Amino acid sequence: MAAAWGPGGLQRCVVSPSGRHSASLIFLHGSGDSGQGLRRWIKEVLSQDLTFQHIKIIYPTAPPRPYTPMRGRISNVWFDRLKISNDCPEHLESIDRMCRELTELIDEEVSGGISKRRILLGGFSMGGCMAMHLAYRNHRDVAGVFALSSFLNKASAVYQALQKSDGVLPELFQCHGTADELVLHSWGEETNSALKSLGVSTKFHSFPSMYHELSKTELEQLKSWILTKLPGETGKHNE
């Protein structure tokens, strides 16, 4: 594991594969967190690091910016928004700027010899929303997308972009706690249904009594899904 700075100025925490690197996973944290913080949280929940024999995990940190839901205080967030709700306009200027910065991170992996089809994008909460914008509006040739406790706004630019799409879209793996009081379970369900209606192959897993958090069962299911999308070179699920 190492911390480094990305080409666009994004700091990131990297967990290297134990064997030969043949795939990459970009895992985006929730609002106010950091790449290092997300990695630590996952390690606490699993009682060990999330690691793979052949997959490099990159945990970038969002740059600090004023965040409207915190009355304009500075926070590490991927984009700004008027409020945490699915019925307000998206702040597309900040979303698009971050898509450009994260694209540089993807391009860096490709330059290092990793095919786009061997790259997964995902995240927790705001990070999952950012990953859906990044994949479905800009990088439809990645291996897949995952969104944990996340949602898209009702009039999201993602939906508008997919109405004009053709060809195969990356599969979405979504998880949500039924007791989530910050990002409502119904928002996650609506997002999943809307994406499915626009041609995205989706998997949606509900976790009874789970709040706005990560659980061990959820992360273990995510790990299994990751290995189906990014199998080892032999085609077997390398641990």
Walkthrough of the structure:
This protein is α/β, with parallel strands linked by helices and 239 residues long. The protein has a single domain (12-229), classed as Alpha/Beta hydrolase fold, catalytic domain (Rossmann fold), CATH 3.40.50.1820. 33% of the residues lie in helices and 22% in strands. It has helices at residues 35-46, 92-111, 126-138, 157-162, 185-197, 216-229; strands at 2-5, 11-15, 23-28, 55-60, 64-67, 73-76, 119-124, 144-148, 171-177, 202-207. It has an eight-stranded mixed beta sheet, sandwiched between helices. A two-stranded antiparallel ribbon has the order 5-6. It is globular, with a radius of gyration of 16 Å.
What structural class is derived from the secondary structure elements? alpha/beta
Low-pLDDT runs of 5+ residues are 235-239
Strand order of the largest sheet: 1-2-4-3-7-8-9-10
**Envelope shape:** globular
Give the terminus-to-terminus CA distance: 17 Å
N to C succession of SSEs: EEEHEEEHEHEHEHEH
What is the β-strand count?
A: 10
Q: Specify the helix fraction band.
A: 25-40%
**Fourth-tier CATH superfamily name:** Alpha/Beta hydrolase fold, catalytic domain
The major β-sheet equals: 8 strands, mixed
At CATH's second level, what is the architecture? 3-Layer(aba) Sandwich
Q: Name the quaternary structure.
A: single chain
Enzyme class: hydrolase
Pfam families: Abhydrolase_2 (PF02230)
GO molecular function, one term: carboxylic ester hydrolase activity
EC number: 3.1.2.22
